[in-house]
Write a structure and sequence with these properties.
Layout: E1 7-16, E2 19-24, E3 27-32, E4 45-52, E5 58-61, E6 72-81, E7 84-88, E8 95-98, E9 111-118, E10 124-127, E11 148-156, E12 160-165, E13 169-174, E14 187-195, E15 201-204, H1 209-227, E16 229-230, H2 238-245, H3 249-261, E17 265-268, E18 271-274
Parallel strand pairs: 13-15
Antiparallel strand pairs: 1-2, 1-4, 2-3, 4-5, 6-7, 6-9, 7-8, 9-10, 11-12, 11-14, 12-13, 14-15, 16-18, 17-18
Helix pairs in contact: 1-3
Length: 276
């Protein structure tokens, strides 16, 4: 069984002047000659992305789109026609967002968070109706507190930023957790902070607990090994600490306290330095 709109591992059946013909169940899918190299031979297995080409036929490519079926991404509109908006997703054939899947009319040159999916005709298309794509039933939320997850920054709110967790769930990253310069569509790692009774999910960029403090201490020591001195202390602002070390002031103070107690650093009025 093959998955349209995703990367598949397929075997080469034969190669001719048109390209490499791959076994896809009972069918043969063409990897065009422009993507075939001399090292390829019959029987080789290739990782290819499957999609419908402009003629509506199933085709293969070694290229990777910016998002596969079931995934979210921030993509730019390259054209708008009577069929809908077309997004640049890294392949020659742009990705269609039908008008019915646009909460607001998309404009050329603007970026939108979308989810890639297969429509009723088996075509790879996208939707900007993000809320409809996220799992909300508590019984189906397969997460636990402290778990490392993939996050995509969806949109900013008064509380912080909405994020998409593992391309499946919606979550909230609070304002005091945000790193300077983070933008919509950016993807990064985070941790499940709390699974709330109202079925909402809070996330954090910090692991929490002893492991988090140890990681912070290692970050500080590496910075000291590089620069010899850090101009950070009790009166440094949270912004200064976050910009230099990427951690909160509270975590910084915990980490410094442990390092000082272990006699690994020396404290000065204007900063800290490595001991010895």
């Amino acid at each position: 069984m093959v998955n349209i709109g995703r990367v598949n591992t397929l075997q080469i059946h034969h190669i001719d002047e048109d390209g490499a013909w791959l076994k896809a169940g009972p069918h043969r899918v063409l990897l065009p000659a422009t993507e075939v190299n001399t090292s390829m031979k019959d029987g080789d297995r290739l990782e290819v992305f499957l999609y419908q080409n402009t003629s509506g036929d199933l085709a293969a490519t070694l290229k990777r789109p910016k998002a596969q079926v079931g995934e979210f991404a921030l993509l730019k509109v390259s054209a708008v026609t009577r069929h809908g908006a077309f997004l640049d997703w890294g392949l020659e054939k742009d990705l269609l967002v039908p008008y019915s899947e646009q909460p607001e009319r998309m404009r050329v040159g603007r970026n939108y968070i979308v989810r890639v999916y297969l429509d009723d005709q088996g075509r790879t298309v996208a939707t900007a109706r993000i809320d409809h794509c996220l799992e909300k039933e508590k019984e189906k939320i397969d997460l636990c507190e402290g778990q490392e997850v993939d996050l995509l920054l969806w949109e900013y709110t008064d509380l912080g930023a909405k994020v998409i967790i593992n391309h499946r769930y919606g979550g909230l990253l609070y304002k005091n957790e945000l790193m300077p310069g983070q933008r919509r569509g950016e993807q990064f790692k985070g941790y499940i902070k709390r699974l709330r009774e109202d079925q909402k999910i809070d996330v954090s960029l910090r692991r929490g607990g002893i492991e988090e403090v140890k990681e912070a201490q290692q970050t500080i020591l590496e910075a000291l090994d590089k620069d010899g001195f850090l101009p950070l202390h009790d009166k440094s602002s949270p912004l200064e600490i976050k910009q230099l070390l990427g951690m909160s002031k509270k975590l910084f103070k915990k980490a410094v306290g442990g390092l000082y107690k272990n006699r690994q650093i020396e404290l000065a009025d204007n900063g800290i330095r490595r001991k010895g």
